[in-house]
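Recall the central idea of this unit: under ordinary conditions, the amino acid sequence of a chain determines the structure it adopts. In this exercise we apply that idea directly, starting from the sequence alone.
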Amino acid sequence: MNEERRLTTRQAAELLGVKPATVYAYVSRGQLTSRRDAVGRGSTFDAAEVEELARRSRREAAAPPSGELSVRTSLTLIEADRYYFRGVDAVALASRYRFEEVAEWLWTGSLAHGVRFTAPPEALAAARRSVAALPGHSGPADRLRVAVAAAAVTDPLRFDLSEEAVLGSARCLIPTLVGALPVLGADRWAGDARIARRLWPRLTAQDPDPDALAALDLALALLVDHDLAASTLAVRVAASARAHPYAAVSAGLGALEGPLHGAAGRLAHRMLAEVLERGAAAPVVAEYLRAGRRVPGLGHRLYRGEDPRARALFDRLEGLPQAAPALAAAREVAAVMGRQGGLHANVDLALAVLTVSCAMAAEAGETVFAVARTAGWIAHALEEYQERPLRMRPSGQYQGLRPPQPMP
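Accordingly, the structure predicted from this sequence is:
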């Protein structure tokens, strides 16, 4: 860049509204880069970089007061019982395009028709060996966390946080995660690289039909992102500390394993299977309520009406003959609960219809959710890498004894 586009320390300080010493503090934190001037008497700074830091500082000064966590994002908007990916209706997008194409849209804002993700042989082999070494009772989150760690150590470029490098890692990581999971059925059509097709035999021993496969692909696309869920916030905290994308995804998987986040699909699956076994929803719902347990698959804090993801998946499952019993059971559960609190079906209940109908295990919904959300986590990590490092550092509200206290 030519010399006219560089600022002295004093000019940079004036633009930022700080003292010259603070400018060098920004340099030490990695927020600015400096260069010695031609005669070596001082430092100069890229004017565009200083201006961007000044804009960020002004935005942060206007952020909500301490105690109200608010994160700027251009990825997902949720309002009026609908949600949008980069301003586009997410349900319409997921209904029209495949999971990989929706992921690319979220990552780049561009639609890559027919894009396919490919797992590098070395990463896939390492992930498979690592997952195979786990005990048989290991859950989906266990397997995926181990697969992420194994894939990370095979990628020498994982510490490159440029957009191009992170996107390259993402396009390799998702198929590696899927390919590392144990196969339950015959993996026919092995040449089909679509994520939904590769994931299917890892969820069920049943052969897929085109409609069932389309329903799985829709579920993946619908679940790509949902704003700042707990796991996504964990990813952004890791990315704020400049953890590489594999580590950021691991943070998301750790939060996902909590019973209040990732386990909802498993609980809805078991509840729906019980309704089918007993032939009616009312007695099952009554037992849940009698035990003081929440009926899974109903209600969502962000939607007053029915979860739009559930509605879209239910509509797709209508065309799946084997889903009819589970679909009727799910609607009966929603109808029974609707008499009391007006709770509507959420995506966990719709996903349970898919997993029950296709002879999948109870934890299959958790696997689908984690694979899909990995794409969203990468999008949030990419966004966070463009922000000031370590900005996710809230202040603790100390509630302990005031010092000085006697030495124990």
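Residues 81 and 302 are 8 Å apart (CA to CA).
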